[in-house]
Amino acid sequence: MSGKSSAIGKGDRLILVDGSSFVFRAFFQSMNQDAKYNYRSDGLPTGALRMFCVKLWQFIREGAAGVKPTHLAIVLDKSEGSFRREIYPEYKGHRPDAPEDLKRQMPLMRDAVRAFGLIPVELERYEADDLIAAYAREAAAAGAEVVIVSADKDLMQLVGPHVRFYDFESGIKGKNGYRPERNLDVEGVIERWGVPPEKIADVLALTGDTSDNVPGVPGIGPKTAVQLLEQFGDLETLLERAGEIRQPKRRETLIENADKARLSRKLVLLDEKAPVPVPLADLTLAEIDAQKLIAFFKAMEFTTITKRVATEYDIDLNAVEADPELARGGDSAGESGAAGEVGLAEGDPQASPERLVKQRREEAQGLKIDREAYECLRDRDSLDKWIADAREAGIVALDTETDSLSAHSAELVGISLGLPDGRACYIPLQHRGGSDLFDETGLVKGQIPLDDALAALKPLLEEPGTLKIGHNFKYDWLVLARYGIETAPVDDTMLISYVLDAGRGGHGMDDLAERHLGHTTIKFAEVAGSGKKAVSFDRVGIEEATSYAAEDADVTMRLWRVLQPRLAAEAKMSVYQTLERPLVPVIACMERRGIKVDRQILSRLSSDFAQTLTRLEEEIQEDAGERFSVSSPRQIGEILFGKLGLPGGKKTPSGQWATPASALEELAEQGHPLPAKILEWRQQAKLKSTYSDALPNYMDEKGRVHTSFSLAATTTGRLSSSEPNLQNIPVRTPAGRKIRAAFVPEKGMKLISADYSQIELRILAHIADIPQLRKAFADGIDIHAATASEMFDIPLAEMTSEYRRRAKTINFGIIYGISAFGLANRLGIGREEAGAYIKQYFERFPGIRDYMEETKTYCREYGYVSTIFGRACHYPAIRAGNANERMAVERQAINAPIQGSAADIIRRAMIRMEDALSGSKLHAQMLLQVHDELIFEVPEDEVDQTIPLITRIMREAPHPALTLKVPLEVEARAADNWDEAH
DNA sequence: TTCTAAGCG
DNA sequence: GGTTGCCGCTTAGAAT
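Structure tokens for the assembled complex are given below, as produced in the milestone run.
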């Protein structure tokens, strides 16, 4: 386009786009769209880029702020270090990092600009703002009209008779419906700032600018600054005559901070003299090369904008091929060249997701895994070579080996890497034994010093341009985080498998290798031994460790190549990108924090329980007339139903007497003292063994307990918690709540518990679209009472607790896939009566019967059901021949969309929570999730601000993807222990 | 390792 | 025509 150059002049119109703020805006706008539009089929985030292109296309064709351009420039920041850093090192100092997904698509922005036939304008040592200033002045001086497109208020300095400032609306609305300024002329600037554009730098010099870390003068805000400038004319005059200021305090700070103000002005003042790297004349808009633009869009997998361009230029879409070369990311060799290529079918730009899936599967089955070829890296040179290769590939599988199973305390023993070409290596770091020679520190010889290796690996593991692949990466993330490495971006093959195949089998690496690669992995026990002979991994010989560890990385990479393409092909990209991937660091941080437990409380409880147990045991044995083990259900059964001949005994599937609580309760109601005592004993024994005795063993030196949440353990999308399970801490009985009360905040802090009220019933009302339930929820009426009123024809005002209780049981039964038998059992009524209830329920709420029937039919046909966010839960056994089994699976299928949708909602809330809190400068920390409840630890003086924020994030969690037909309600409370907070 | 019971949502 | 039976988890202890 430089061939058509002509100098700018009167009648010309120039749009100057502040590239980085533009792409930021674009990113947040893209976040308001369904996630499926924001990722390419290889998982690369492209949402910001898509919005960027849509807007750029719009500016070129239609103009911005009512100005249709003859010239246009996208101006970028070349690097972090501008000349402002040289005069003030703290400039833009503590800026939060851009979101991970945005960072990954940044390199492609220049490609997008070029695809439009434009030149990305950037210059070393200068910020985009300075170049925009220089262009704006030059163009305005020549008589052209200028529009500056930016979200950065600093650029409002440049507004003048021929220069406007334009900010297109951010996708995210702030508090009080705040919207950024847009389309400002000189009048608009004066209205916004109280001063004309040329004085903005003076204002900022006084007030400072927190976002850029410009100091300013302490205690001077915008109001005072404007007033002072009105009084004295400009900053220099003000500073010279500061002695004349009446207010003593203000006078002193201004005199004292005069230099700071001058420095601040230098920082905020834009450098109009910046040497522009591209002459204005070369910014003339030429006709777009639509073929090239479409080829780029196709490589990015944009659809709507691609069609729009094709229509505009009357081009046959199918005749244009995607050109991955146009979307390489970065402009020179060596700079994260792979960001635009990751996962694309090699040399086949037309590969459809389905073909790619097939190709990868065949490839995986054809490629033999060769353990002999794994490398063991024992010196820096070979490690550096591997790091370079990983960088070149843009993708690397990663696995850590440690000396214990707990990610919170394990020491790093080694790291393995795997590449897409099937190469894999192991880097031993802290092996201490086996048959290898070791030195005086106990470390086996021939290992790269840990610090050296980590220093070399850290940039690779943290850089946005190289995708890391892990399996159950939360573990590795936690281990590496303790060595100061925050790995990103990461794909997790366990989570990809979970999204694709929940319900179809395990998601452990061994399972997946068998299933997808037909490969049997070396088992951990084979190298480390099992039972008494088991050793920790640092005692495993390095050669053996290499085949085991490198294989893990190798298999992980191969699994990724097989599974990842299925995300796009099976329309599961959104689920993976919005509900799974971002949750890994969130959960990891929660686990790392742990929750404090009061050891004394537990130890006292243990003694209390022990005492009660002894007493009960004696009474029980006396009543039974013999000594036996109360903890043995079989012996209990033999005593109650055999020896004492109590009525109504049932057998378990294995033929022994069944003694569940419900059976014992029934006997107790009939007046038998023994079953009641056994029940009591069992409760106390459970509380003692599982909680008061066991929990202290999990406490760290600070008295905190770190559970492990599993993200891929359930069929429905719920999390699970283990070692210890903190999702089943007692709450239903007074004795149990004493355990819960042992969970406490740190001094000066409170615990906040926030839980969704009736979330599953609300989801049922939404999915099945039940008018009465929707109305009851909308009106905030007690839902069980409303159900009872509808079912039993009793006005709400006359509702009795008994009818409400029955309705409540029925409501729960419905969620679980009700049966007359089950309901009868629960309510202690006859089967006929229970059947009549169900019949009546379905007559009043026919939509629920429809939902149940449709769900069963759907599941039978497709083998899976889905949550409202598209998570699939597979039930292959739905076609089982056995009627009982089939009915059981049908109930699961009915329940899964309800339970799973609730799980999705709280996942969304959790993912947003951290940013929302830190964005509001609050220090609350999320500690636990218990399915519909989140537990936080919060500084006492922030409780009042934190509760509304948490509540809002949880209530609004389905947005913007979905708007439920019922409101979500959240109850939150702060207290000094978990029992009181709940 | 499997079964039974009990803790939670 | 008898049987079984309400969803999702983890842990402890006994029995195998």
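The two ends of chain A are 67 Å apart (CA to CA). Residues 2-194+271-283 of chain A form a domain with the Rossmann fold fold (CATH 3.40.50.1010). Further analysis is deferred to the final report.
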